[in-house]
């Protein structure tokens, strides 16, 4: 009887956290981001940062399916982020993790739908970054994450009080350095483009409802200018 009551309370808490509207937007975001990773990133050797980049890295070296790697890496990141983000965030994110693994499994049943952009790396980087940025942004906007890297970036942002775009870039660049083990330097340069695009789009989609669209775009442009100025200064140095 006690177990039944606990189970019913558990289901009730999930119903309150996951409204039909939230679930629809989360599934839409997960579908968009995973579609881009499968059809663009995996086909063109342009990687992402965070957990997605680690999935592509481990998939390349081990051959393990992303549908298996995704939940394993997510659980590790959730364990770290729990103290900063709380139980409700983790509950929602677990649903996202399982759904993302399901989407990867679904796309693997079909050949790539989009044209192979291997010979057009800049286009692949920009389009791939848009898929991931818009998709993940929709999920984060609903109070969850599309994977452990979102939880990790949000935890870093909350603990250091930095903009989430900068937290994403910090984790992304770390993964890109590891990715040099199988991706040539020129492809990593394009990967930096895609993680920059996706990071700022996540930030934009997450915050656009909280302030005027023009102000949100202006802030993202200013952040982008600051980032590239830092890069140029470091190169000159």
Notes on the structure:
By secondary structure, the protein is mainly α. It has one domain (24-236). The protein is built from 9 helices and no strands. It has helices at residues 2-17, 20-44, 50-62, 66-107, 121-141, 148-160, 164-179, 185-207, 213-236. Helix 3 packs parallel to helix 7 (164-179) and helix 8 packs antiparallel against helix 9 (213-236). 43% of the residues are buried.
Number of strands: 0
| Secondary structural class | mainly alpha
Give the end-to-end Cα distance, rounded to a whole number of Å: 68 Å
Major sheet? none
Instruction: Please state the average pLDDT score.
Output: 76
Spans of at least 5 consecutive residues with low confidence: none
Molecular shape: globular
The percent range for strand residues is: under 5%
Protein name: Membrane protein
Organism: Anaerocolumna cellulosilytica
Membrane topology: Multi-pass membrane protein
Pfam families: YitT_membrane (PF02588)
Q: Which keywords apply here?
A:
9 helices; membrane; transmembrane helix; YitT; mainly alpha; UPF0750_membrane
Q: Topology of this protein?
A:
Layout: H1 2-17, H2 20-44, H3 50-62, H4 66-107, H5 121-141, H6 148-160, H7 164-179, H8 185-207, H9 213-236
Helix pairs in contact: 2-4, 2-5, 3-4, 3-7, 4-6, 5-8, 6-7, 7-8, 8-9
């Amino acid at each position: 009887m006690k177990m039944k009551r606990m189970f019913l309370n558990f289901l009730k808490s999930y119903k309150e956290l996951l409204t039909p509207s939230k679930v629809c937007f989360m599934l839409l975001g997960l579908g968009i981001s995973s579609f881009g990773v499968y059809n663009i990133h995996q086909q063109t050797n342009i990687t992402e940062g965070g957990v997605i980049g680690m999935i592509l890295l481990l998939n390349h070296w081990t051959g393990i399916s992303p549908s298996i790697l995704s939940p394993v890496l997510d659980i590790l990141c959730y364990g770290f982020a729990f103290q900063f983000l709380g139980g409700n965030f983790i509950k929602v994110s677990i649903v996202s993790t399982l759904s993302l693994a399901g989407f990867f499994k679904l796309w693997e049943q079909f050949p790539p739908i989009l044209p192979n952009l291997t010979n057009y790396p800049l286009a692949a980087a920009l389009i791939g970054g848009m898929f991931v940025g818009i998709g993940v942004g929709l999920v984060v906007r609903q109070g969850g994450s599309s994977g452990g890297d979102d939880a990790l970036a949000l935890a870093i942002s909350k603990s250091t009080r930095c903009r989430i775009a900068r937290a994403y870039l910090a984790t992304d660049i770390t993964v890109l350095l590891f990715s040099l083990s199988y991706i040539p330097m020129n492809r990593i340069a394009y990967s930096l483009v895609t993680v920059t695009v996706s990071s700022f789009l996540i930030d934009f989609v997450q915050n656009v409802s909280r302030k005027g669209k023009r102000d949100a775009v202006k802030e993202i442009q200013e952040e982008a200018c600051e980032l590239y100025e830092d890069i140029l200064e470091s190169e000159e140095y």
